[in-house]
Design a protein that fits this description.
The chain is α/β, with parallel strands linked by helices and about 325 residues long. The protein has one domain. The protein has a seven-stranded mixed beta sheet with strand order 1-9-8-2-5-3-4, with helices on both faces. Strands 6-7 form a two-stranded antiparallel ribbon. Strand 6 and strand 7 form a beta hairpin. It is globular and about 50 Å long.
Length: about 325
């Protein structure tokens, strides 16, 4: 099922002259270049992605350390095998940039030519609203585009700090996601699902202790967002739609979660299913996220003072606005 062009979106961002400020010029140049590169054949883009990933690997010591810690902690990989794993993850991140460009700007015909395999499609056919959980893969943007070939979707996104990237992202997604909300509009998301819409939500990252409880993730306690558990013991189907790149095919596999469980039991089963799908394509998971940052007295991650200062500056700016 393809997205109807007549469907409305809730994020019709208007272009502002502020997006053409001097500090935005470099971003626009990068996006325009990426737009032209996206016309290249898929295989060429993936090879370019590997090279870009190798470059990012060399210039990102902080991200490299976070990825190394997460992979070691979750998959118990060490030594030279860990080094190879970290590098392959960076290559997947590099490919993901070009997979994002495919998702944003490719024609429907080019997307259909990408090899896909859909498993358990029946779980989302003829449904009156469903919560569709997804994971943060390195090719997440393409995952969304591929899923939209088969189902009409709504979803949630986090506004990007770079306003130009945010504008381009939302405008692009509006072409294949029927409606979308920001992560500040959770109550509206609940109403959408109850009204019969398929709603995408990624519940595999640490969103902070205020909206989470501690649930094991790869055997270690991790702050797990409770939003999906709101639909337990209600007539709402909850599934996890995984997209894993297996050789040259994007394998879409849908599995249903038991929503008759209580909150803790459900979130435990959800994390277990996330783990199962992450292991299917471990190098394609977004390991650079600090998954174990909340709920622990001592951080498992090294301090990143420059990043923390930037975040504090943004928080102060929001408070003063």
């Amino acid at each position: 099922m393809s997205l109807s062009k007549s469907m409305s979106t809730s994020n019709n961002l208007k272009f502002s002259l502020k997006l053409l400020s001097i500090k935005s010029i470099a971003t626009w140049i990068g996006l325009i270049l990426l737009r032209f590169i996206s016309f290249l054949p898929y295989g060429t883009l993936m090879r370019l992605g590997n090279s870009l990933g190798n470059l990012i690997y060399k210039i990102s010591p902080h991200r490299k350390e976070i990825i190394r810690i997460n992979i070691n902690k979750c998959l118990h990989v060490e030594g030279e095998q860990l080094d190879r794993f970290v590098r392959s993850n960076f290559q997947a991140i590099g490919r993901g940039i070009f997979e994002m460009s495919l998702a944003w700007w490719s024609s429907d015909k080019k997307i259909r030519n990408i090899k896909t395999k859909l498993i358990n499609r029946n779980l989302l056919e003829n449904q009156n609203g469903a919560l569709i959980l997804i994971k943060h893969s390195t090719h997440l943007e393409l995952d969304l585009r591929l899923l939209s070939q088969f189902f009409d979707l709504t979803g949630m996104y986090k506004a990007q700090t770079n306003e130009v990237v945010n504008y381009v992202m939302v405008k692009a997604r509006n072409n294949y996601i029927a409606e979308s909300l920001t992560n500040k509009e959770a109550l509206k998301a609940v109403r959408w699902i109850k009204s019969g819409k398929n709603f995408l939500y990624a519940a595999d990252q640490d969103y902070g202790q205020n909206v989470s409880i501690m649930i094991p993730f790869f055997e270690y306690d991790a702050a797990t967002v409770t939003f999906p558990a709101l639909f337990c013991n209600k007539k709402i189907k909850i599934v996890l739609a995984d997209v894993s790149r297996v050789e040259d095919t994007y394998e879409i596999e849908i599995k249903e979660l038991d929503n008759s469980l209580n909150e803790k039991e459900f979130l435990t089963s959800m994390n277990n299913l996330y783990q199962e799908f992450i292991r299917k394509e471990p190098e394609g998971y977004l390991w650079m996220h600090r998954r174990f940052k909340s709920g622990h007295q001592e951080s498992v991650y090294p301090k990143w003072s420059s990043r923390d200062k930037k975040r504090e500056k943004r928080r102060l700016k929001r408070d003063n606005d």
